[in-house]
């Protein structure tokens, strides 16, 4: 029954979608199997068709396919950029590194920026298994949504969470020397709170740090390195000065701030306890007096 | 007791004071409502609550306008006090005195039943003085820090370099924690005393009329009653 349905869907898709003569097999052919397979090789047909890449043939990215079941199915020969990236990420990408590197074909500018970035350098030069590739942030390429979509992992309101996947990890902060509290401190800041409340003008991580071309803050080219912050903060806070831009470090609070907070919490709690006690005693005395004075003049 | 010379009620708050109070509590509520959404941004109803105020941007504008209005109200109050003093009507009846500590002690004794009578309160008892001066504490801590937070670029030039590592955290904590203290204080202490107490429920109408009956004055502020009407009675 299921196979019959799949075949019907396949036939329909063939009729609707496929332009006249294409040498490569179309997505529907692949989805005939992969739409109903379990595990990592499954592709959700509905979600795929709604993604920005939903009109692609699978072999646009999956250029080289392995295994007898795929015999005769393949796309164009991967170009140099793809091979370069595929080799670099082969230890990270077990299933199909070429497909994971194929983004570079259509997004060459982004690829160049990424290659020079701290993330790209970590992946391609240091061959680290930590560094993010395209899909680490953008999610599965089968389901990529436009950035403006609420479902996009890199949407202005989702991207902080996406960065947090790695940057919230203590192990990562120790290994790469960023503040272990970077996410926490951002989230409790005015920027983080306003973003959370839906203010589109509130900056998320990439608004200050950059995205594909992201640099380590220790890199003098980073928009948040040293006095570069004056221009970066100045995008919203016109007239930013060196003293002003010193405000945000994402570091753990200074002891002065920490103890101020403790002192103020003690003050708040003591006042709270005192007034609660006072009110309760007042109520008690009021009731007592009324009971004792029963029959007497009522106030 | 020469009843003829004693009026049925006396004025405790003139029109200006009543208007100052209305401005104060209106702006206070606006500040509390909008600020609450930001303080608890990560607790679930916050987003819906902030949408009610027109989104984060609009809530921020309301918060700033209300804050500046409150600050102006507070400044106006200082001129009002100066004017009172100039007219010779200033009696320092709101200044905390050692007697307030004694009164508080006596009041607790009364709560526990160790004393039969309420303390010999003056024009303003220690709770009312507490209420009044809490505004000064609030204006100083929350008002100043709020002003700094509203104009961070300008204000940052005033701070010495050595404080830059912690000053904004301190200002942020001051603003947020003391605002919570102010809200808790008003919600429990002020609301109980002026709204929920069986005698005044649902509210003490003095905020509109400014008047208190002489009966009430005699019961709650006997020292003031004696001061005004010259009856020295035994405690």
Written description of the protein model:
- The complex is a heterodimer of chains A (299) and B (235).
- Chain A has 299 residues and is mainly alpha-helical.
- Chain A has helices spanning 2-17, 27-34, 45-50, 80-88, 97-101, 103-106, 108-116, 118-124, 134-138, 159-167, 170-176, 182-188, 190-196, 205-209, 228-234, 242-245, 255-292.
- In chain A, helix 1 (2-17) runs antiparallel to helix 2 (27-34) and helix 7 crosses helix 8.
- A two-stranded antiparallel sheet of chain B has the order 1-2.
- The mean pLDDT of chain B is 91.
- Chain B has ten helices and two strands; from the N terminus they run E-H-H-H-H-H-H-H-H-E-H-H.
- In chain B, helix 1 runs antiparallel to helix 3 (55-86) and helix 1 packs across helix 7.
- Chain B has a domain at 1-90.
- At the A-B interface, helix 13 and helix 17 of A face helix 2, helix 3, helix 4, helix 6 and helix 7 of B.
Helix/strand layout:
The complex is a heterodimer of chains A (about 300) and B (about 240).
Chain A: H1 2-17, H2 27-34, H3 45-50, H4 80-88, H5 97-101, H6 103-106, H7 108-116, H8 118-124, H9 134-138, H10 159-167, H11 170-176, H12 182-188, H13 190-196, H14 205-209, H15 228-234, H16 242-245, H17 255-292
Chain B: E1 9-11, H1 15-39, H2 45-52, H3 55-86, H4 98-111, H5 126-150, H6 152-156, H7 167-196, H8 206-209, E2 211-213, H9 214-220, H10 222-229
Antiparallel strand pairs in B: 1-2
Helix pairs in contact in B: 1-2, 1-3, 1-7, 3-5, 5-7, 9-10
What is this structure, in a nutshell?
With 299 residues, chain A is mainly alpha-helical.
The major β-sheet of chain A equals: none
State the helicity of chain A in percent bands. Answer: 40-55%
Strand order of the largest sheet of chain B: 1-2
Shape of chain B from CA axes?
elongated
Q: Which stretches of chain A of 5+ consecutive residues score pLDDT under 50?
A: 15-22, 295-299
Oligomer: heterodimer
Classification by helices and strands of chain B: mainly alpha
Termini separation of chain A: 86 Å
Q: Give me the count of strands of chain B.
A: 2
Shape of chain A: elongated
Largest interface: A-B, 46 and 49 residues
- What is the C-alpha radius of gyration of chain A, as a whole number of Å? 29 Å
Structural class of chain A: mainly alpha
């Amino acid at each position: 029954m299921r196979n019959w349905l799949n075949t019907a869907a396949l036939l329909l898709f063939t009729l609707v979608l496929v332009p006249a003569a294409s040498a490569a097999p179309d997505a529907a052919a692949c989805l005939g199997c992969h739409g109903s397979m379990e595990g990592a090789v499954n592709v959700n047909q509905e979600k795929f068709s709604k993604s920005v890449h939903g009109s692609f043939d699978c072999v646009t990215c999956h250029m080289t396919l392995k295994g007898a079941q795929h015999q005769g199915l393949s796309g164009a020969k991967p170009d140099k950029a793809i091979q370069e990236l595929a080799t670099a990420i082969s230890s990270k990408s077990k299933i199909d590194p070429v497909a994971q590197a194929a983004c570079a074909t259509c997004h060459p500018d982004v690829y160049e920026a990424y290659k020079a970035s701290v993330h790209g350098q970590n992946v391609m030069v240091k061959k680290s298994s930590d560094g993010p590739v395209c899909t680490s942030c953008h999610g599965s390429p089968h389901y990529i949504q436009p950035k403006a979509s609420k479902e996009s992992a890199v949407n202005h309101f989702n991207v902080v969470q996406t960065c947090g996947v790695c940057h919230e990890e203590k192990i990562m902060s120790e290994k790469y020397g960023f503040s272990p509290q970077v996410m926490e401190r951002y989230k409790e800041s005015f920027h983080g709170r306003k973003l959370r409340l839906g203010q589109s003008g509130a900056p998320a991580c990439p608004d200050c740090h950059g995205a594909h071309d992201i640099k380590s803050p220790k890199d003098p080219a980073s928009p948040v390195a040293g006095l570069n912050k004056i221009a970066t903060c100045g995008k919203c806070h016109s007239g930013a000065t060196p003293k002003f831009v010193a405000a945000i470090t994402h570091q753990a609070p200074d002891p002065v701030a920490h103890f101020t907070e403790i002192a103020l919490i003690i003050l708040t709690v003591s006042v709270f306890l005192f007034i609660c006690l006072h009110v309760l005693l007042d109520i008690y005395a009021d009731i007592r007096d009324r009971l004792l004075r029963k029959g007497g003049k009522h106030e | 007791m020469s009843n003829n010379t004693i009026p049925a009620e006396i004025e405790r708050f003139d029109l200006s004071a009543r208007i100052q109070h209305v401005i104060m509590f209106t702006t206070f509520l606006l500040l509390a409502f909008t600020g609450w959404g930001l303080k608890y941004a990560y607790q679930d109803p916050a987003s819906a609550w902030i949408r009610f105020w027109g989104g984060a941007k609009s809530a921020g504008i309301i918060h700033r306008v209300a804050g500046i209005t409150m600050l102006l109200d507070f400044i106006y109050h200082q001129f009002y006090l100066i004017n009172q003093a100039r007219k010779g009507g200033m009696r320092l009846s709101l200044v905390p005195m050692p007697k307030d500590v004694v009164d508080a002690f006596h009041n607790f004794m009364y709560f526990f039943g160790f004393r039969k009578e309420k303390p010999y309160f003056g024009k303003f008892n220690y709770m009312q003085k507490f209420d009044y001066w809490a505004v000064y504490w609030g204006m100083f801590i929350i008002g100043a820090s709020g002003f700094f937070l509203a104009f961070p670029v300008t204000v940052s030039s005033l701070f010495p370099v050595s404080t830059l590592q912690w000053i904004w955290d301190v200002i942020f904590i001051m603003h947020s924690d003391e605002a919570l203290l102010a809200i808790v204080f008003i919600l429990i202490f002020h609301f109980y005393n002026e709204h929920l107490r069986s005698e005044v429920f649902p509210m003490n109408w003095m905020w509109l009329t400014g008047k208190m009956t002489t009966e009430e004055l005699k019961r709650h502020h006997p020292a003031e009653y004696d001061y005004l009407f010259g009856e020295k009675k035994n405690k």
